[in-house]
Write a structure and sequence with these properties.
Elements lengths: L1 H23 L7 H22 L4 H20 L1 H19 L3 H21 L6 H24 L8 H69 L6 H29 L7 E4 H18 L2 E7 L6 E4 L1 H17 L5 E9 L3 E7 L7 H6 L14 H12 L3 E7 L3 E9 L3
Parallel strand pairs: 2-4
Antiparallel strand pairs: 1-3, 4-5, 5-7, 6-7
Length: 417
């Protein structure tokens, strides 16, 4: 009788080992389909290991590990995990320990179907007590069906006391598993609600920020258009107002483009990009800004060969231009902007460094997050777009910074060719 309790305790440990997967794989991290597949595979592997390692009695395996594994998979994960685990443990029981195939098939399949029925009809709106009650009831039905079929073959070797101990041990183990899985489900639901709340909060803030940033240039444009309609305005003034109105529309369009690039970054037409040529082509755009701020630009290429990466040239230019402009804006009193390239472990490394104000460790951790910006006026969309586009082009981006000493941004792409 003590051997039965030891076997049941060992079996419970194996099942709890499978429960650890539930703790480390919340539903927000894995898709429902992958999660169900993983549960079924883990339970099957653990059942096989249990059979190989433990010299277990066939009846103890059939009335303890089998039903608890099936109940856990079907009640908490659904039909397919329950059926797959049912097939796996039944196969192990029949071919590894020689359990009765008819009794196992009848009781295990019935338990899997009952658990799946409960999962789809009642699970998501059931309390712990209700889930516990149905689970124990299903386990009782499994116990009765198995013994009823098994006793027909005159192979029943356990006496009444041993059957009672086995039944009580199985029920206690079931209670522990249900409480554990329900605790995991409660934590997952809480995490999912927090995730949704943060997501909606971010969308609300982003929408408010975008509407504010768009409204400013559009209001300016509206003002210039109204001024153009006034009588007695000279043609020179009308032309000046027209140009200012166009600038306002272009500014609003740029904000919308940044938002779309962040919300859904895509690469429309990937082709080889000559990195050095693209960098040299951006110099005429940033040189006027650097001259206005008394900033020296230094270009350093640590190799003579051409460097190619795969991506969309316009998106690549947008990333570099945003980073260079940020570096220049971080040096309001002048400084040095260094742009360098090198090859490292079959990767093209592009480094953009400045000698500006730098960032604190807290600011560095928040870089690239929505609405984070070190500027007095800004949405933080520019850097968010850079991070999104670099990732969608298969690259990596890193930042290092020290207050008062400047910031270094490094982008790495796979070398093409």
């Amino acid at each position: 009788m003590s051997a039965i309790l030891i076997y049941e305790f060992h079996g419970l440990l194996y099942i709890l080992a499978a429960c650890t997967f539930l703790f480390i794989s919340p539903r927000v991290m894995l898709s429902a389909r992958r999660r169900k597949q993983a549960i079924a595979v883990i339970m099957a592997v653990l059942s096989t290991c249990y059979q190989i390692i433990e010299p277990i009695d066939p009846l103890v395996f059939s009335l303890h590990l089998m039903p608890i594994s099936i109940m856990m998979a079907s009640v908490f994960e659904g039909a397919w995990p329950g059926i797959l685990v049912c097939a796996a443990v039944t196969f192990c029981g029949v071919f590894f320990t020689g359990t009765d195939i008819e009794a196992n098939l009848a009781s295990n399949l019935l338990l899997a179907l009952l658990g799946a029925w409960f999962h789809y009809r009642m699970f998501w709106k059931s309390s712990l007590s209700r889930t516990m009650g149905y689970s124990l009831f299903f386990m009782f039905i499994h116990f009765v069906v198995f013994l009823a079929v098994y006793s027909q073959s005159d192979q029943l070797k356990l006496n009444a006391a041993e059957v009672l101990v086995l039944f009580v041990g199985t029920m206690v183990s079931s209670v522990i598993i249900v409480i554990t899985c329900n605790k995991v489900r409660s934590q997952e639901n809480l995490q999912e609600e927090l995730y949704k709340a943060e997501k909606f909060h971010m969308i609300g803030e982003l929408a408010a920020s975008i509407s504010h940033e768009i409204r400013n240039p559009l209001t300016t444009t509206q003002g210039f258009l109204q001024m153009m309609a006034k009588p007695g305005i000279s043609s020179a003034s009308i032309e000046r107002y027209r140009l200012h109105a166009i600038e306002g529309v272009e500014q609003a369009n740029a904000i919308i483009t940044d938002y779309l690039n962040y919300a859904k970054p895509t690469i429309e037409e990937a082709r080889p990009i000559h990195v050095i040529e693209e960098i040299e082509g951006l110099l005429p755009w940033i040189s006027p800004l650097s001259v206005m701020s008394s900033i020296e630009i230094r270009i350093e290429h640590q190799q003579e060969r051409a460097l190619y990466i795969m991506g969309e040239p316009k998106k690549f230019q947008q990333c570099l231009l945003n980073l260079m402009k940020n570096a220049i804006e971080a040096m309001p009193t002048g400084g040095l902007l260094t742009i360098s390239t090198r090859i490292e472990n079959r990767q093209v490394c592009i480094q953009i460094s400045d000698t500006g104000v730098g960032m604190s460790k807290l600011q560095l951790r928040r870089i690239g997050l929505p609405f984070f910006t070190t500027k007095e006026k800004g949405t933080g969309l520019g850097l968010m777009v850079v991070v999104s586009l670099v990732k969608v082009m298969g690259g990596e981006i890193f930042f290092t910074s020290k207050l008062g000493r400047g910031t270094v941004c490094e982008i790495k792409y796979g070398l093409y060719g």
